[in-house]
Write a structure and sequence with these properties.
Length: 254
Amino acid sequence: MHRLFSIPALGALFTAALGGCAADNGDEGIFITSNVVPGEGCALVASAGEPFLSHGTFSVFSRSGYEFHPQMKSRIIATATQIDARTIIMEGARVTLTFPDESVFSAAQQDDLRSRGVMRFSSLFSAPLPPNGGLADGSFDIITTALLDELVAAKGAGILAPGAPSFRAEVVATVVVYGDMSGEEVTSQEFQYPVTICNDCVVNVLGSCPLPAGTTLVNEGNSCNPYQDGVADCCRMGDDVVCPATVAPPPPPA
């Protein structure tokens, strides 16, 4: 929704932009708009027209964390001579995770995981965010493999076995990004993003590793992490799933 300002109100906003910017009342200096979809090669372009995801999917077989790509918009106002001084140098994000369904982890278990840095932590990244509505895209983990390990420990390694019953758990990440502007910390609003962690999504298992020579992989998966937000052709190696799948080399010529 667009906000209309009178001249005095605009002047007040300008004054606020020059002062402290770690507000928590809706006037934060950074606005997270969405989780954007990276392009080929995990490239991010920081444009207003970038496609975005409203909900994530994440395979429990992933070997790395769930990558979040926030598009950030500056609400800091600057004159032409203040651009450099009013550019926010992004430094990281504060992430808090919650499982709404307490059959996954009880409230007490979730509190314990937060105290141990598994469900509450800082995730570092760097990017310049110019003032006057400037845009920047970031990239950092909001779910770590430590949480996947905790899920497997709680639910049993059987959820990783071939033919295991479907397992799905939704976790909500609350994200606040922060950066430095001329020695002052600037923060964003709290941005909530839901992710379904599962043993039967994202990965399309075609068989045991390696797949037969000549097998063509059709689904390449997400360009940043093949275990999230898409479909990837994979192969199975015991209780592990390898994405993208390995394919046996062709036989040597006769």
